[in-house]
From TrEMBL:
GO terms for biological process: chaperone-mediated protein complex assembly; protein folding. Heterohexamer of two PFD-alpha type and four PFD-beta type subunits. Component of the PAQosome complex which is responsible for the biogenesis of several protein complexes and which consists of R2TP complex members RUVBL1, RUVBL2, RPAP3 and PIH1D1, URI complex members PFDN2, PFDN6, PDRG1, UXT and URI1 as well as ASDURF, POLR2E and DNAAF10/WDR92. One of its GO terms (molecular function) is unfolded protein binding. Belongs to the prefoldin subunit beta family. Binds specifically to cytosolic chaperonin (c-CPN) and transfers target proteins to it. Binds to nascent polypeptide chain and promotes folding in an environment in which there are many competing pathways for nonnative proteins. The keyword NAD does not apply. GO terms for cellular component: cytoplasm; prefoldin complex. This is Prefoldin subunit 6. It holds the Pfam family Prefoldin_2.
Length: 102
């Protein structure tokens, strides 16, 4: 009888520990998304200050490439939409694999 209770208790403790790990992973993913959201909002604000005479560059690997202002604004807008949707849905994509993939 005691062994049965001990095994059941051990199983419940393992489930609880797994839930704690899952929660920690979810919170970490959400924090990364929140940081990216903040950074992209700052970029959006900075791009809003520019006019057509300004030059915008984007970083592709080790190279800076000229980019149209409208294209840069559209890209940042899409990123904001994506990040906001991920936060709303509560999903956490694998940000470690390729944080700039969206």
């Amino acid at each position: 009888m005691a062994e049965l209770i001990q095994k059941k208790l051990q199983g419940e403790v393992e489930k609880y520990q797994q839930l704690q790990k899952d929660l920690s992973k979810s919170m970490s993913g959400r924090q990364k998304l929140e940081a990216q959201l903040t950074e992209n909002n700052i970029v959006k604000e900075e791009l809003a200050l520019l006019d057509g005479s300004n030059v915008v560059f984007k970083l592709l690997g080790p190279v800076l490439v000229k980019q149209e202002l409208g294209e840069a604004r559209a890209t940042v807008g899409k990123r904001l939409d994506y990040i906001t949707a991920e936060i709303y849905l509560g999903t956490t994509p694998d940000l470690e694999a390729d944080p700039g993939s969206f």
